[in-house]
Known about the structure:
- By secondary structure, the chain is mainly alpha-helical.
- The chain folds into two domains: 1-39, no CATH class; 56-194, no CATH class.
- Helix content is 48%, strand content 8%.
- It has helices at residues 2-16, 22-39, 63-66, 75-88, 103-106, 116-128, 132-143, 170-182, 189-194, and strands at residues 41-42, 47-48, 89-90, 93-94, 114-115, 155-157, 162-164.
- Strands 5-6-7 form a three-stranded antiparallel beta sheet. Strands 1-2 form a two-stranded antiparallel sheet.
- Strand 6 and strand 7 (162-164) form a beta hairpin.
- The protein is globular and about 55 Å long.
- The two termini are 21 Å apart.
Amino acid sequence: xxxxxxxxxxxxxxxxxxxxxxxxxxxxxxxxxxxxxxxxxxxxxxxxxxxxxxxxxxxxxxxxxxxxxxxxxxxxxxxxxxxxxxxxxxxxxxxxxxxxxxxxxxxxxxxxxxxxxxxxxxxxxxxxxxxxxxxxxxxxxxxxxxxxxxxxxxxxxxxxxxxxxxxxxxxxxxxxxxxxxxxxxxxxxxxxxxxxxxxxxxxxx
Length: 205
């Protein structure tokens, strides 16, 4: 998100004519990008991790292609997405991080439900990777758990088949709307933001 803030400041200058030290901001943006690619990717795990030096997955990393940091098709990103599918996808829904390890980072007791915004982010990433059938199947699965009024919560407890956590959760609804737009025939927000993604870094660490 630090990279996003600086990138959007640069774009405000380049695309909308705002005043600002764009050259200095570009250099800072490139420095942040290079540091994350160098220190945030665990080559042994084959994934970007929760923090520098970690071997823990965090599904918030699915935001990286959605904000334009790296294309979903970049091998490091594609490998990360596959690792999250393998390690954080439970009964068809994505956990923010492993439910038995959540207390290590957020202080909450283990056993949290699947974090629904992350599930929508995975749909977006699958779409950006060209895995269209899988993306649409998962999107339909997410739509199916809404209430009759179309409302959706923060989390989903797959063992009991119920929504849990904050309800209704605006964050989840924003994810639903973004994903619906991403899956539409016209260019969605993730593709629009990704159009300016940095690709100069090597494909392998």
